[in-house]
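Attaching the record inline, Q. Sequence:
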Amino acid sequence: MKRATKEWVEKAEDDYRTAELIALSSELLHDQRCFHCQQAAEKYLKALLEELGRSVEKTHELEDLLDQLLPHYLSLRSLRRGLAFLSQFAVEVRYPGDNATKRQAVSALRWAGKVRHACRSLLGLPPSPRRRKRP
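Structure, as predicted:
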């Protein structure tokens, strides 16, 4: 695996783990959980693009990333609906006027987990990574 791919995966795992920790919290942080789920999915898709040697765009549109990957990984097509759902949490929930619900937050974590599992499998990584030690 390329070094840059590994870095994308590490960042994706950080976002996914953050979403999991928020889910376990007693705080009602639905916006933040949804945002980190979107970010995890985005970074996992970008890891696949990196591994393919494709340029990694600065975009939050997960369906656009999926379209770039489908010629190489047809198995990802089943994630389209979930990626469309997650894309809405890239920007809007970070500003006043739009709030995620608990139901959306639960669904976001479920979809992020599916994206994570699919991407890790395609990259030849185990389903559950060992936790990195922090300095």
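The chain is about 60% helix and 0% strand. The chain has a mean pLDDT of 93.

More tomorrow.
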